[in-house]
Amino acid sequence: MSVTTGRAAPSGAAGESSRINATWQEVAADGGLAAPAHHDLALDHTQLRSLYRLMALSRRVDRQAINLTRQGALGVFASSQGQEAAQVGAVFALDDEDWLFPSYRDSVATFARGVDIVEVLALFQGSWHCGFDPYRYRVAPQTTPVATQALHATGLAMAARMRGDPIVALTLFGEGAASEGDAHEAMNMAGVYQAPVVFLVQNNQYAISVPVSRQTRTESIALRAPGCGMPGVRVDGNDVLSVYGAVRAAVDRARAGGGPTLVEAVTYRLEAHTTADDETRYRNADEVATWRANDPVQRFAQTLRDLGVLDDALTAEVEAEGEELAARMRDSLFGAPAGDPREMFEHVYATPTPALNEQRALLDGELSAEGDA
Amino acid sequence: MSVTTGRAAPSGAAGESSRINATWQEVAADGGLAAPAHHDLALDHTQLRSLYRLMALSRRVDRQAINLTRQGALGVFASSQGQEAAQVGAVFALDDEDWLFPSYRDSVATFARGVDIVEVLALFQGSWHCGFDPYRYRVAPQTTPVATQALHATGLAMAARMRGDPIVALTLFGEGAASEGDAHEAMNMAGVYQAPVVFLVQNNQYAISVPVSRQTRTESIALRAPGCGMPGVRVDGNDVLSVYGAVRAAVDRARAGGGPTLVEAVTYRLEAHTTADDETRYRNADEVATWRANDPVQRFAQTLRDLGVLDDALTAEVEAEGEELAARMRDSLFGAPAGDPREMFEHVYATPTPALNEQRALLDGELSAEGDA
Amino acid sequence: MTVTMAAALNTALRDAMREDDSVVIYGEDVGTLGGVFRITDGLQAEFGAERCFDSPVSESGIVGTAVGMALYGLRPVVEMQFDGFSYPALDQVISHVAKYRNRTRGRVGLPMTIRMPYGGGIGAVEHHSESPEAYYSHTAGLTVVSPGTPGDAYSLLRSALAHPDPVVFLEPKRRYWMKEEVELPVSGEPIGRALVRRAGATATLIAYGPMVATALEAAEAAVAEGWDVEVIDVRTLTPLDLDTLAASATKTGRAVVVHEAPRFAGYGAEIAAALTERVFGHLAAPVLRVTGFDLPYPPAKIEHHFLPGVDRILDAVARALEY
Amino acid sequence: MTVTMAAALNTALRDAMREDDSVVIYGEDVGTLGGVFRITDGLQAEFGAERCFDSPVSESGIVGTAVGMALYGLRPVVEMQFDGFSYPALDQVISHVAKYRNRTRGRVGLPMTIRMPYGGGIGAVEHHSESPEAYYSHTAGLTVVSPGTPGDAYSLLRSALAHPDPVVFLEPKRRYWMKEEVELPVSGEPIGRALVRRAGATATLIAYGPMVATALEAAEAAVAEGWDVEVIDVRTLTPLDLDTLAASATKTGRAVVVHEAPRFAGYGAEIAAALTERVFGHLAAPVLRVTGFDLPYPPAKIEHHFLPGVDRILDAVARALEY
Ligand SMILES: Cc1ncc(C[n+]2csc(CCOP(=O)(O)OP(=O)(O)O)c2C)c(N)n1
Ligand SMILES: Cc1ncc(C[n+]2csc(CCOP(=O)(O)OP(=O)(O)O)c2C)c(N)n1
Ligand SMILES: [Mg+2]
Ligand SMILES: [Mg+2]
After folding, report:
1. B182: contact with A, CB 8 A cutoff
2. Could you tell me if B147 and D25 are in contact, meaning their C-beta atoms sit under 8 angstroms apart?
3. What is the pTM of this model?
4. Which of residues 259-318 of D touch A (CB under 8 A)?
5. What is the pLDDT of residues D261-277, one digit of tens each?
6. Looking at the predicted complex, does its ipTM rise above 0.95?
7. Does any CB of chain A come closer than 8 Å to the CB of residue B30?
8. In the 8-state DSSP scheme, what is residue C97?
9. Right CATH number for C195-322 from 3.40.50.920, 3.40.50.2300, 3.40.630.30, 1.10.10.60?
10. Best of D28, D32, D41, D57 to disrupt the B interface by mutation (most B CBs within 10 Å)?
């Protein structure tokens, strides 16, 4: 059982969409955050249900990943809980041929893009740095050094534009990562080359223990857009429809040759930074509780119930699918044999060097001595 | 003969200043370039004459540096011609205890700050990387890797603030340098720590051969300020009074605890990038001529003549001083003996390592063999 | 008392801050959280957020502002959260930290310390197990230090903080929880001095940082083979105390260098080359190297096959003895 | 025909761009200006600004976007304007360029080339005369190449551009104007092969890049001393062709490595260490190193005292022979 790529319908899809509202704030070309503006979304009920399914499954696999980490099947895990609207909503705005450049935080975005969850988790399992084929899913490896992937996304977008291919690159990074030089260089170069790339900053209020107020003094990360000559948008990152709408508008503009956009999704990380982090050292339970009341998965479920799009049958169906997924995660990740250590020599270069062959022979000898070979 | 530090009078100085006008555009806190606004300057006639003297002498020493490079006394030189208003005006806004962090482009700023011009030029002569004592002048070495010194300025300003010392750091860099990650990291950190630092970007239209239109898509580098939570200003960089006014306002705010400011001075490099550059490959003579008509030194002289502050006597006096300076430059820089090569071992560490002592002995031997020792 | 290396480092920072109010500490998560490894734990509480504070995620910014702070007369001690995240700061380190004194003809020294946990062996994800010492050691103007024991962690860090020049202080993260009986404060051998950790006559093992403990373990295991192995802890990577290494190699005639970093153009090559040049006539075998392989640090599940262990070290000793 | 190294490099880029439209070139001032050394001269005119274009002043940005371009299937060739300005890109190089193939289990190779002029001897200001090869050579996953002659500059650059993995291509800037009689296109020995540039029996000089010409000069001068010196051009720093070096050292019993970079933990240490391990029994003397001193590159007026020259090399050969 695999999750299919979530993507938007072609424009001009079925009409029930007009009742659906998304809201975001635009930054004027010369700066200045405008008042929130409302937009109609072109999403039909089928799409809304797909989106719900991805959100709910995302929450389920994230919870299961935390469990599996506690139980030792994963070495560490960086939860996306609380950020499902930002991640799933953004990915849902991509077309099949587009590319995603996620970070360690974006396992749920990667999953929503269609990557098998077990392959996603290889990184955290410690079996390999990237467990999936980037070309198969058009998803780059989840990147650990923050902000660096923003440049890869920009470069890929530049290349696609040069080739005349109508594809868009979406990259996700945090408000902390936005302090890095690479974030600025990526946005500036994307502006210069009018690269079809969308920068989605998930402002989840913390960079490990450091609150956004000590990360930057700007009122909004979106205010960095005019300084690189691109549109900027600030959106409620816990409202999946607004995130979808804002990112979709940016993707459409990029594809049409309108260049990059910076989108700041204001959200919250509900869990600790990773399973190795102790969040009680830097934030209090009240704050977490306040944001938990704004849970993006429940909120979307409620919206859909209000719209009459979500009923108990669908909820149950998705829940069952989630349990199936969780079970498969457990089965695949628990007690998985470590790979052959000799594989470490295989992918350094297209052809191993003489030195690597010698070193491999050394390891071969050791493995034979251990009786492992 | 040495040039004294150019600095502003203490506030509350003599009254003839009210007739003097400066103009700049402010960026609103949430972005957006405001219309140009006029400000009265607190500069009296003595100060205006000092400023004129520094501008005129700056032009003269710059021309002489180019001559000396053509004649082989300097290895290379990066001219400030056309940017005297930006550099001298900014430095004039500093108090004695403030610090300047210049780049290779800012020899004239360094000179205007009071550093002996012969010491300034050691860098281009190739006699030592920095020819002056930073502590004596409170001027950091002119930095070659672009934008890197913006972080040093920010760090010094953070340290001064921690110590409770009312000093301000001013750093100069180009619009090309502003594309570097370090420029962003410096501005962002300065915002977070409310460091008393002023970032003066001299947008001289080119980074070597690359025009600003291909350096960044932003309308104005000043629009980067709101993204780091600081005030931004755009000023006519060929109008020394406006530069002075804008930078002085920023310096005053920083000193009063109001944090950093980003100032973009729009100007033009009249000479080639360096004496090694061939500007005809990337810009045409008409463009240069247009800007030459807007020469900041002549323009300021005219303003002062209109104000009745500059007369032929002063012009002649400053001219004579300039010739004296130029002559001293020639005398000091021509045929200056290369320093003792053994000095290269002396400043690597406070105490030379055993390896350095061995290597020094090797060189000693070679020099003896050459009969140089 | 029994102290872990983590506790020794924390105490060293605290003691230095008490003695010298120009010492300031900053970096990612070093304030409120006390660092991801808790090396700065409690410092913000004791000394206030002026002297121990969090920075934005901005390594070049952290190191570059430390240059300015040192220029102003403070003694900044900055943390790179992990080895693999020290690379964005390499330009500031190579272009400025290492060169400022020289650039200014000795007028401006930069008494700053760049601390970072380094090395593998803790089951971490990519970029958290790098051994970047070769980059720093090759950069003239830097002093590079790595302690192998809790006591040395204390005394070397105190020395680093008092040093007139910039020190890159490499903390062997998998030894943070290593324990030693030692009374703090302890003042050990100064920066620039290697130490014989175990005397022996058959062969010399040369190690630093995380590999000191492994080398000592190997030396103990070697007893069973009838080998009496000397173990030297390099302690200061730049400047290298070649005299101590040479004395040992002259005595034993056989030396093996051990480090986690990949071998090619690694730090061990310098030891092998310099030592060979110095004591060539006394060597019965070439100086051998036991190192990580020439590849990016492998995933956690197989990292133990990458890291030099006792057996791999003993095999090398055997090869040296067979010459 | 007589070609300079600069012309050979320019021709190599042009020929590759004609043959393969996935080759794109960018960097600071490489378009309109043709590069500060004119290595990309005329390429924008011939191939258009889509395939040869200027970038913002943004080295990490240049290398990082090249990763994305290569991922998409192009073959980006980027220029770092000078050695000393390649450092801001080190994080992208170490963390991504070198590791992408391995990270993705071989699924994503990055066929990209990072060109840069390097080394001293041209009277430049600070940061324009660095020899950063040790940093790149130690970084597993990179292929590091440096040509010593115009012919090799052509053929190695063509090979680099066709290589399936990222190549750091170090151009010895003070040899840009060096001339050779050679018909282009020329296809020389592949990446990974060292070359005996001058056969000899007394001792072996091992050099690369800017020092190849100096080593050959020294070998000629050595004739007057009655020494018949063999000169090897390393050509590919990673992976090193140890076989060719070992064959020569076995024959002569004496080897001297020459490079401009500071000695300590420099690239020469690897050659000395690896060669000694391989041919220890054949060596009559330790492998010696003639290198720059362990200090930041000195100011232009005294740089000739820093750079290894014929006399310093011959002194080392004499020391090796005296053993
Ligand atoms: C270049 C770099 N520096 C430091 C780190 C260590 N680190 C891991 S996550 C993190 C905080 C990042 O915060 P943010 O960008 O807001 O992302 P979030 O974890 O909140 O999603 C830091 C400092 C890193 N991964 N990369
Ligand atoms: C980090 C770095 N990269 C590249 C260079 C090479 N370089 C010297 S000047 C220059 C252009 C800088 O342009 P700008 O910042 O606008 O300053 P300007 O020369 O116009 O004053 C470049 C790319 C450098 N000095 N430093
Ligand atoms: Mg965050
Ligand atoms: Mg400029």
Report:
1. yes
2. no
3. 0.97
4. none
5. 999 999 999 999 999 99
6. yes
7. yes
8. I
9. 3.40.50.920
10. D57
